[in-house]
Amino acid sequence: MSEERVVKRLYQNTPEGSRSVGRPGLRWMDDVREDLRRMGVTNWRIRAHRRDDWKMVVKEAKVLQGQYSHGVVVVHIAQQL
What we know:
By secondary structure, this protein is mainly α. It has five helices and two strands; from the N terminus they run H-H-H-H-E-E-H.
């Protein structure tokens, strides 16, 4: 078989460049999971399928919005000032 076949070239190819150094960046879903963990929401995937349950979770999240900012409890700091 020919050495010029696309499949063979892809199989034998070595990518150029390198990966960036350090921890991979967080995804949006990682932030959502962290927020749900802080709120104490368990079985969130099942609750998301139940519209009424999920509506309550979203309502609670809206009430708590602003309290958490990347791990820092902003409201408690503001109350201390």
